[in-house]
Amino acid sequence: MADYEFDFDLLAELTETSGVPGYEDRVREVVRREFESSVDEIRTDAMGNVVGTIAGDGDYSVAVAAHMDEIGFMVRHVTDEGFVQLDALGGWDPRVLKAQRVRIHTEDGDVPGVIGSPPPHTLSEEQKEATPKVEDVHVDVGLSGDDAKEAVTVGDVVTMDQTTREMGDVVTGKALDDRVCLFAMLQAAERIEDPEVTVHFAATVQEEVGLRGAKALGVDIDPNLAIALDVTVANDVPGFEAGDHVTELGEGTAIKLKDGSVITTPKVHRRLRSVAEEADIPHQSEILPAGGTDTAGFQNTHGAKPVGALSVPTRYLHTVTESAHVEDVDATIDLLTAFVESETGDHDYAY
């Protein structure tokens, strides 16, 4: 196992805690608890975004954002036979859902279930070749039709049932998108003391369904500069050419140049690189061809803002086995801390 400096138990708690878009309650309580010892003020808005603020001298402010929500589902129907049908919350690849354990979160507690997968030798050739769809997924809760309808209600939310593990040099589990970056933000907040500028650490909601929480915060806190944290693709696995890797595990935190929603401000990503070089923090550049992040939610929501982003390279995104290198997590925490601590409000990010 590679050496690392962070609190693995907290990372595991964050990743294993449930919180789909619009229902981030449980993970929000963890965030508020962690902010208690590190920030001057904590507030939650009507959407559920949590902002922990460390006050600086002067009027200049920096927003650091990582989203709390994970991809999941909402119950859309319970059949007479007792099977639960789902509606996706966020972008799922239905191919990865077969034979997975889930938890259905009801008002009376969690109900365990499994996503059914018929044995392959009973399938016709047509069934084997069919393209899977989320709407075709069914959850078996092990109950009769009447009992299932008593236990599960339309509108209940569903998350994958998975634990977070150390595996060689990586951590692997569900919801590293974006709990590993939420974790990095919380760790940086613990380290930063007496910054020259005011820092708003924002744990945002509903990123997976359209960057909705960040757009609201862009208006509410109206920062002078915004830095978003999210995972990014690491296709450094068999079947991909080197030019399609986007990032590689173990090569450091990724400084975003663009994704499908944003082109980061050149002077911001250049200063991120400069800080990394001066502090000898491992880093790489990220050009993500598709997908969006909270970076875009802050860029032009309430007037134009300079924005930058750090990403944790992650394999197998939007599955239950997302995997990130521990040294890349450390590098992300280190660079975020160094960048914020060195922000004076005097840097010119204008074109």
From TrEMBL:
Checking CDD domains in the record gives: M42_Frv
What keywords is this UniProt entry annotated with? Answer: Aminopeptidase, Hydrolase, Metal-binding, Protease
The record, for InterPro entries, names: Peptidase_M42, Peptidase_M42_aminopept, Peptidase_M42_dom2
What Gene3D superfamilies has UniProt attached to this entry?
A: Peptidase M42, domain 2, Zn peptidases
- Biased composition range(s): Basic and acidic residues: 123-133
Identify the residues that bind Zn(2+) 1.
67, 177, 230
Which residues constitute the catalytic centre?
207
Q: Which domain of life is it from?
A: Archaea
Cofactors, names only: a divalent metal cation
Cofactor detail note:
Binds 2 divalent metal cations per subunit.
Q: Which GO terms describe its molecular function?
A: aminopeptidase activity; metal ion binding
Q: Where is this region: Disordered?
A: 108-133
What residues bind Zn(2+) 2, as annotated? 177, 208, 318
User: Which Gene Ontology terms describe the biological processes this protein takes part in?
Assistant: proteolysis
Q: Could you say which protein family the record assigns here?
A: Belongs to the peptidase M42 family.
The record ties this protein, via PANTHER family, to: AMINOPEPTIDASE, AMINOPEPTIDASE YPDE-RELATED
What's the name of the protein?
Endoglucanase
Q: Which organism is it from?
A: Halopelagius inordinatus
